[in-house]
Task: inverse folding
C-alpha cells in the first residue's frame, strides 16, 4: 500500500488511523506489517503504539488543535481597543511619529510608547482578532460614519469626544 501523509488528513481520519494501529498491534502484528496495511511509516506506527502503551486511549483520542483563545497575547483586550481607537482617531504625524500613514512599524512604535512593550516584527497585535474573519478596525456597532453622529458628540468610530481626548492625553 502506498504511504500517505497523515498530516494532510482530517483530525477524524488521523484518529481512525491511530485506532487501526492500536487494534492491529493488539492482534500481534509488527509495526512493519501495520504500517504497510494502514499506509503510514513504520516509525509513525511505532510512535502511535508507544504512546498508547504509555498513556492508554487518551494518547490516541482527538484533541483540540491550534492555539487556545487568548493564548500568547501581548496585549489585553482593553489595550487592543485603546490601540484601535488611536489608529482610527489619529494619524502617526499627529503623535510625532516619522510616518504619514499607519504602518506595521508605526503601530509597533505606538504600542511601545503606550505600554512599554517591544512587539516582535511579525506580530500584529491589533490584527489578532478571534475567528480571524473580522476586519480589525471594523466598528461592529456604528460601522462607517453615520450622518449626525458628530453633532451628538460621537466621532465616526462611535467613540465619545471625551474618550478621544483621554487617548490623546495618554499619547502626548
Result:
Amino acid at each position: 500500500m502506498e504511504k500517505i501523509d497523515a498530516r494532510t488528513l482530517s483530525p477524524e481520519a488521523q484518529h481512525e488511523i491511530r485506532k487501526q494501529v492500536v487494534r492491529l498491534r493488539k492482534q500481534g502484528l509488527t509495526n512493519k506489517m501495520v504500517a504497510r496495511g494502514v499506509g503510514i511509516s513504520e516509525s509513525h506506527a511505532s510512535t502511535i503504539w508507544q504512546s498508547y502503551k504509555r498513556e492508554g486511549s487518551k494518547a490516541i483520542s482527538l484533541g483540540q488543535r491550534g492555539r487556545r483563545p487568548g493564548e500568547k497575547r501581548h496585549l489585553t483586550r482593553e489595550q487592543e481597543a485603546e490601540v484601535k481607537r488611536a489608529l482610527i482617531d489619529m494619524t502617526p504625524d499627529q503623535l510625532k511619529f516619522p510616518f504619514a500613514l499607519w504602518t506595521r512599524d508605526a503601530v509597533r512604535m505606538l504600542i511601545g510608547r503606550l505600554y512599554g512593550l517591544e512587539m516582535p516584527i511579525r506580530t500584529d497585535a491589533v490584527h489578532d482578532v478571534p475567528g480571524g474573519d473580522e476586519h480589525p478596525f471594523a466598528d461592529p456597532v456604528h460601522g462607517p460614519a453615520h450622518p449626525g453622529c458628530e453633532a451628538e458628540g460621537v466621532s465616526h468610530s462611535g467613540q465619545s469626544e471625551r474618550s478621544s481626548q483621554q487617548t490623546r492625553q495618554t499619547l502626548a
In short: Helices lie at 11-26, 31-38, 42-55, 77-89, 104-115, 161-171. The chain has six helices and no strands. The two ends are 68 Å apart (CA to CA). Confidence is low (pLDDT under 50) at residues 125-160.
